[in-house]
Amino acid sequence: MSKIEKIRGVRGMNDVLPADARWWRRLEESVAATMAAYGYQRIRTPIVEPTGLFVRGIGEVTDIVEKEMYSFVDSLNGEALTLRPECTAGVVRAVIEHNLLYDGPKRLWYTGPMFRHERPQKGRYRQFHQVGAEALGFAGPDADCEVILLCQRLWDDLGLAGISLEINSLGQPPERVAHREALIAYFEAHVDELDADARRRLHSNPLRILDTKNPVMQGLVEAAPRLADFLGEESRAHFESLQTMLRSRNIPFRINPRLVRGLDYYNLTVFEWVADGLTVCGGGRYDPLIGMLGGKPAPACGFALGVERIIELMRAEADSGVDPACDVYVVHQGEAAGLLALGLAERLRDRGLDVILHCGEGSFKSQFKRADASLATVALIIGEEEAAGSRVGVKWLREAGAGQQSVALADIDEWLIDRMSGSIDEHTGDD
Ligand code: ATP
Ligand code: MG
Which pLDDT score is estimated for 1? Predict the structure, then answer.
């Protein structure tokens, strides 16, 4: 007999298994509540977008566009398409396409899978998930502060204490041009110390050299001309004002002059939330983007967080454990009992309990094994004897040494609801 080969998932693209569902649900619920608390509304954009959107919206000389995009040609009509590597460009495209800013600024949020062809490692995958918020049409530092506070509230709600905030200002385009010229002159004077990536970027995007992860270049980068020294009055005031607001809310932050972010469209405020040396969330202001994508120019700011990285932190903070699959597991044996059990399970579901009805045959012993594994609070038993007497056996599965009780089938709903009201709607079972 020939062995049939198993098909494995794509490298760097993960299955989220039921044992992890609780973390994802917890994060999703917390995100939805926090977004609502700040008046952000959900937007859902397609996973596939025209490749040109990202080339224009993220910038040609970026890691993402240079080497991380899953791009392909639609074989049916020749369109150049890409699996979204991030969602801001798609949100802005949708906002322009549907003229969402016609009646004023908008607060939007999204979540979903993103795709980048990177080398998979812990916290870095080829399909990963982001949650993001975009405040569109707001020019002032109050909006920058708002999205930062929103993040802080989310960390608090999730019980994550070890995430720290770094901020910087990238100034405005003319200020960056002046800084850029100074940077090019500086790196030209040290061209022997640049790695291949840096040399290639020296004239196309010298700012990105500051973002290098190459340890050999850290000293060089440390001593490079600082953008802060090139900021004009307005940019400085914007940055100062943001800091005043953050201080007034007691949000600790560190100014990191080397913080430039990977995407090219940022101006003024940029920020990152860092935990254990890993960036879990990045954001900032991107006033040029709407205009760059063909919309009526409007200022904007936002952030994106990496769901897998946040979930790693949640896992590290919380006790381990697994979600129960249900509240009640119904065990039954015999044809008449089976029909009674079917009706009972439906009645309990009507009342809001999560119920697994044993499917298939099986000894009581093997059924109880399943009941135990489901982590249900209680097993209800209808055997031939119970069926004949219109009664139900009750066994509390989480109480050591609990014996079996017997309750009239007609009364069991109320009886059980009385004793279990605490667990109803406490969890929604599996996603
Ligand atoms: P990094 O410097 O780690 O590559 P980035 O600057 O490319 O991050 P952004 O594009 O700003 O990241 O994305 C925002 C967040 O999304 C990151 O802070 C991170 O938490 C998450 N993220 C980015 N790329 C990945 C990935 N390949 N796998 C998992 N999470 C990711
Ligand atoms: Mg990256």
Answer: 60
Reference 305, options 133, 170, 62; nearest CA is 133
Q: Which ligand is nearest to the CA of 313?
A: 1
CA 283 to ligand 1: nearest atom: 11
CATH 3.30.930.10 corresponds to the domain 18-172+232-317: yes
Q: Select the more confidently predicted residue: 401 or 406.
A: 406
Q: Strands 106-115 and 41-42, how do they pair? A: parallel
Q: Which CATH number is 328-417 given? A: 3.40.50.800
User: What would the mean pLDDT of 116-137 be, rounded to a whole number?
Assistant: 97
- Residue 343 and residue 321 in contact, taking contact as beta carbons nearer than 8 Å: no
Confidence class for position 431, pLDDT limits 50, 70, 90: very low
Separation of 425 CA from ligand 1 center, angstroms? 35
pLDDT at 425 over 90: no
Tokens of 148: 């930062």
Return the pLDDT at 263.
63
Q: Domain spans of the chain?
A: 18-172+232-317, 328-417
pTM of the predicted protein model: 0.86
For residue 74, report the distance from its CA to the centre of ligand 1, in Å: 27
Please tell me the distance from the alpha carbon of residue 259 to that of residue 25, in angstroms, as a whole number.
32
Q: Taking residues 81-98, report their average pLDDT.
A: 98
Residues ≥6 apart with Cβ < 8 Å to 290: 92, 95, 96, 136, 296, 297, 298, 300
Pocket lined around ligand 1, Cβ cut-off 6 Å: 86, 116, 118, 123-125, 128, 130, 262, 279-282, 304-306, 308-309
